[in-house]
Amino acid sequence: MRIAPRLNLPGRPGAKLRLDVVQVAVTSRCNASCVYCPHTMYRKQWINQDLDPALFEAMLPALSGVKRIHLQGWGEPFLHPNLVDFISQAKRAGLHVSTTTNGARLDPKLLEAAVAAGLDDLGLSLAGVTAEENDAIRVGAPFEAVTETIARVHSLASKRPVPTLHIAYMALASHRQSVHRLPALMAKLGVSEGVVSALGFAPDRHLEEEGMLARNDEEKRTLRSFRRSMFQLSLAAAFQGINLYYQLPRPKRRKSCPENVDSSLVVGADGQVAPCVMGRLPVKGNCYHWYAGEERLYAPMVFATLDADPAGQLAEAASGQARREFLRTFRNRPPQSCLQCVKRHMAPE
Q1: 196 in helix, strand or coil?
Q2: Between helices 182-189 and 217-238, what is the axis angle to 10°?
Q3: pLDDT digits (tens, 9 = 90+) for 180-210
Q4: Residue 130 pLDDT greater than 50, yes or no
Q5: Sign of the torsion angle spanned by Cα atoms 182, 20, 50, 43
Q6: Which of 21, 64, 250, 266 is spaced 20 to 30 A from 258 at the CA atom?
Q7: DSSP states of 251-284 as a string?
Q8: Widest CA span in the chain
């Protein structure tokens, strides 16, 4: 691939992205087969791809005004053979670096290399508070891999600065009560930050039910009760020194979105730039998902594709016509793909 190393934004030489986060999906490959994930459900249409290291290096000059770079998308980031190099390059560029992992491929040597490279934040994914619960849902991403990774990070703390840890917890409707045991698990593991999320994308009808977007009065009452219990749980956790955040859907669509599309961008492993991870699944052909009780055609949203001049093209994508028009209409007349997205119902709390 021919790469131009210089940022060249028309009318704004040397322009920088003024964003909170740029999420870079370093790979779409994953070792796991989580029952709720598009990677599993769209396996025949899934495009397995690693980000070109030359592309990553060439886009970095545009990121000097960004607060954080998150190295993860729809795949397992530690499968990319150059992930540690990406962390090092991003740190040299002055960026705060985070990633999220299932821990299954994160052996002690690789973990120590990532920590030594300067990784600031490390999220560990779970969907249950025991091996029995988690491993039945997150197939190939064992509970034990997460707990062992956390223990290894703690053991490294005596040698060097280590990343801040948090648990990224997926709460499915059929297992919603398990989340009430999460603070006790976090206290046992020595992790003080946790984010509980509901399913934001439903590849089939059964998974729409797991997502907890209420469609009738009974489901609304159940969700209200669960939301109250989560509020009480977060208060109780705070007294233990645990910050527990949660995102649950509300029946009415919101004007805002927890993906913070007005202050972030996503770069896929193929170099395509989208407003959020929901905007560009790495799939080929038509895919369908479920929303509001109906099957819908998945519609991607892409602002640009990075190729000859990644830094310049990324800066142009951030300030160009496509994104300006998207943000102008987002709150009152959003595109169809946003109108069919569960994330627009999510309320960070």
Answers
A1: strand
A2: 30
A3: 999 999 999 999 999 999 999 999 999 999 9
A4: yes
A5: positive
A6: 64
A7: SSPPSS-TT-TTSEEEE-TTSEEESSGGG--SB-
A8: 57
d(CA 278, CA 73): 10
Residue tagged 């821990």 (tokens): 103
> For residue 4, what pLDDT is reported?
38
Q: What is the pLDDT of residue 17?
A: 75
- How buried is residue 202: exposed, middle or buried, by Cβ count under 10 Å (0-12/13-18/19+)? buried
Q: What is the length of the chain?
A: 349
What the block records as the tokens of 285 is: 């052909």
* DSSP symbol at 188: H
Q: In the prediction, which pLDDT does 337 show?
A: 86
The answer, as to whether pTM is greater than 0.90, is: yes
User: CA–CA distance from 123 to each of 35, 140, 154, 169, 233 (Å)?
Assistant: 20, 17, 14, 10, 21
Q: Looking up tokens 């209409």, which residue turns up?
A: 329
CA distance 259 to 256: 9
